[in-house]
Each structure stands twice: as C-alpha cells, then as structure tokens.
Input
Amino acid sequence: MTLFPGPGPVDAPMPAPVRSEGDGFFPIPPVAFSAFRERLGYEFVDIALLGQALTHRSWCAEHAGFASNERLEFLGDAVLGLVVTDEIYERLPESGEGQLSRVRAAVVCAPALAEMAVELRLGEVLLLGKGEAASGGRARPSILADAMEAVIGAVHLDGGLEAAAELVGRLVEPRLANAGTPDHKSRLHELVARDPQGQVIYEITEDGPEHDKTFRAVVVLDGEPSGIGVGRSKKQAEQAAAREAWRQLERGRGDLPAREENSDG
Output
C-alpha cells in the first residue's frame, strides 16, 4: 500500500491519496518522503506516525480528517529534554545545575531545533495550508522547530525511547561538542529562545583569493542586522558576529555583567 502517493512538489495538485491505517491522508510525494526518511536514519513501523508529525495545523484547517502534529510536538519536547538532560549529566560531571541548564537550553532551544530541521531538509516534506506555504512556512524557524519535535515524538511512539535517544544523539552531538564551554552562537540562541518568535539568521560574504579568504558574517535578528564579525573561516566570522549580537541584546536588557562589558572573550 502506498501511503504517500503523488509526484511533484508537496503543494502541487495530487492524485487521490490512499488512506493510511490512521485517520486522514498524507499526500507527501514519495520520492521526497523516501529521501527524508533516509536522511532521518530511522525506518518507521507505523509510517502514519511520521505522516502526522509532518502535518501542520494549517493543513488540517483546509483538509478534514487530519490530526495535526501538535500532540506529537508536545511529546517530542519532553523526550528531547529527557535525552539531552541525561547526556549532559553524564558528560559534564563537574558542572552545577546552572551550567547544566544553560547547556541544555542552548541545545533544545527553537533556533537549534530549526537548524536540525534544515539539515534534514524537513521543510520539503511538510504538509502546510496554501496560505502558510505561500508565505514561506517551509523555511519558518518556528514551524520547523515544532515539526522537528513532532518527528522525535513520532520516533519515540514507533520505536521507543531507545530509538528516539539514538536519533536525538545524532542530531545534538555536534552541538554538544563544546558543551562544557558554550560558544557565542549557543549563548545567542539561548537568549533568543526566550522569545518563541525569535529568529536568528547568519548572512555570509567572502572576499579575497581562494587561498587567502576573509569571511564577513552579519547576524540578523527578526529581520534586523544585530552583529557583525570577520574571520578567516565562516565559523570564526559567525562566532564573532554572534558574540556582538549577544552583547547588544544583553546590554539592551541591562543584564550584561561588567566583566563581559570589558572582556574580549
């Protein structure tokens, strides 16, 4: 039985889909869906769970018989928090509660989840209402972050905590590489995550010959330039820009300690 029939882009007209074992239909193009499952690295027993995880409430508003991914998002948020908490507790045996909380917040925040979704190209297989799709919903960080949590929740229901932990581990490992000393990007994302609608974008330009390039990064917060950094690599430039953006935000909030005002670190 083909649960995800129909060629072409997700938003293109599709032939009548086949009913899944659960409620509703999930007309996701099979090629895109198969590629996403491969990137995800987990094979579902109940494929309808993944279909639901990719179903935004805007699609449900336009198509009767669908359940949105909101309940799975709720579950995935809890599973993600548990797995990451367990990992950093073991990884950072000398850290106190405050440091552990900061590291966890940097990893499970909405911007980090949206980055994971972008890496998996999750937006390509989302079921969105026409208006949401037309307004750029496939690239909207809040939608991507919620769907990422829903996918984690779906894996947990389908394969149990061990399967979910394996997926989460692969997704967060690069972000935990420097868990003992959170970098400037992590600190910025943690701060921006306090606003559910917060959005961080890095705009990169480069100059110079191939063997001697200079990179310039601009942090754009909610559509406004906030920090600029220059470095010999994209990573260095992004870190420098994130540091400046973080300092500006903290200074605006009145929360920047004197040692940070006078520190170049």
Notes: Confidence is low (pLDDT under 50) at residues 1-24, 255-265. The longest strand covers residues 200-207. Strands lie at 200-207, 214-221, 224-231.
